[in-house]
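Pair request: fold both.
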Amino acid sequence: MMQMALIGLGAGAASALLFASIISGTPFSIILAYLAPLPILIAAIGWSHWAGLVAALAAGIGLAAAFGNPLFLVSFLVATGLPAWWLGYLTLLGRSGVEGTMEWYPPARLLLWCAAVSAVMIIIVVPTFGLNEESFRTGLQSFFERALRDGNTGASPSADLSSEDIKRLVDAFIKIMPPIAAGVSTLINAINLYLAARIVKVSGRLRRPWPDLHVMRFPAAAHAAFALSFVLWFVPGAVGMAGGAVWAALTVAYGILGMAVMHAVTRSFGSRTFILSTLYVVLVLFWPIIILLAFIGVADAIFDFRSRAGPGKPPALT
């Protein structure tokens, strides 16, 4: 127990430092802040979810003490700490199956949880600006004006942007901010979970076997949630904002599923490496293509491309 506590405290300190690096304002600091869940996940997957929970609490308390504001504890736990701990807990969740074999929590459901915790986080954060579209608009405009005023060291917010400019900016953000934030958060959670599992595997502490990600499939409930959230996105007010957040989070999850489909169906292709490399490069340079990959993931659920392609295998190197 003492070892878990020490591991948790060390991981919490690392996570807090990564999270706090954002105050430097450099582009690299943003990447470091995105990696803040990684130490918590490593502690949870490599040792125990209790070590992950200690890490999340230690990081939140450390940030609150360092900045002298208890809200840092709440904001860190909601945005980073508790989602990372929960994903680490689920990763090691298993039950005894037939003939004494262990059935581990499926990777497809872990990916859906990456989307779920991201959407829930956005749904929790959005009401802090207002409970309906008008109050959300007012709260968001006030936030932008304060940010501009602070950035201008006391100057009027109109020094850079007029009130009309801010209003147009707010109008654009009302529709796109929740979905973009949920989608980015889902991708960050998925990447951190994958990196943590890989690091723990290399260290020899991963207790579950590495899953075959090419064969993961989403349950039917995910397909229904994907379609329903898209419809709800067009509903005015808070319901629409929540629907947009859920749809964007699931779009990223389905996009990753679409990449798994591409990995599976190209196994027998001689140009497999070129196809996948090109796809990854295009995805990095033009991220909206993830919507196309999401539709590939949805289409696979209907037409089962992977079974039609057969198991296949990469071509011989000789």
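--- second member of the pair ---
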Amino acid sequence: MASSIRTIVPFLAFAALSTLAAGPASAGAWTATWYASPQSSWGADFPLPTGVPAMLEQQTVRETARISVGGARVRIVLSNRYGTQPVHIGAARVAQIAQIAQTGGGPGLALTFGGQRQATIAPGAPLVSDPVDLRVAALDRLAVSIYLPRATPLATFHWGAQQTGWIDAGDRTAAPPGQPVALHGRALLTGVLVENDVQRDVIVALGDSITDGNGSTPDQDRRWPDYLAATMARKNIAVVNAGISGARLLGDRMGANAAARFAPDVLEQSGVASVVVLLGINDIGWPGSAFAPDEPPMTAPRMIAAYRQLIAQARARNVRIIGATLPPFQGALHGTPFDGYYTPAKDAVRRAINQWLRDSGEFDAVTDLDAVLRDPQHPARLLPRYDSGDHLHPGDAGYEAIAAAIAATLESSAAANPMK
């Protein structure tokens, strides 16, 4: 195989993806259009995000989400994946942000669960709402409001929302906020499903804080999956974000390890056809830093074995799996309490992983983000215009470049490497 093909193995042209998205005709096909991976709390040394309390009681949580593809009806998914006690829902509603703006905080539509407006989320379980007759368009923004009447410890949450919600006293699900406190993480909302006459194909972005969008402008939908969603929405293909800040291939401290969460976060997404894996830099950077001071250095063979397990799970479900090389990170988090995240020895592991990703041919396709984002004059570091400033996370321009590179991999392909 020519080295240029190995570097970015194309897998499916937009035209072919559009054809696949049509799928077999069926009534009431549900598609995942938005997602936030649930996380468990991990200890007092890593506190909850700003605005996320450890306990909620007689309070309303409102979260916002920009969906990818639209539909005639909507279902909302809440999660108690890591909880050890039931979560009681007193009321819940969904509204389009545009409607709220027009009505000054309008109530939207009430959610029911098995025909009831109140519900209980069992420990370890999700809660899926009944269908709501709410026609939504691609890239619409939704607000989901949930009232928690009883004391509810927040055992399941999501760290990196990059979207601002709020928490307020009392049942404010059908009313504008009173004296809200800003919410910069996620408390309960984990998924949005839309219904169409045919199921749309879904691309899942599996990653860490780079996929979760750290360093992007909050409330502007500028994470790389957001940019990709805007591109793919024109083809009626959904993009959902399974990024978790701090996530690793092999660690469980900030989100379960990749193999453990691959089924619920990727394979169980309704309509999943492809997954893009941009994950591994924390496995390299954490050991020996304040994140994991006692962990031994990571090795390329351990990471390759972890990637191969993801590939095996994807192939067993006939899901296309695309790898992405790890971006440069020289100087990452320098001058912070996490100094030591980057060392030349760690960068050698990153380069070895990237070489395997490019040359092995084990993924169905590879997008070379290292080549896209690095500074040609200093290839161990991010190009300054793509750097958010911490030398680890891209900024808005960098995330847009990531999305464009992945979209180009999708577009470049059909005849060279048809669907396996």
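Observation on the second member. DSSP finds eleven helices and 23 strands in the chain.
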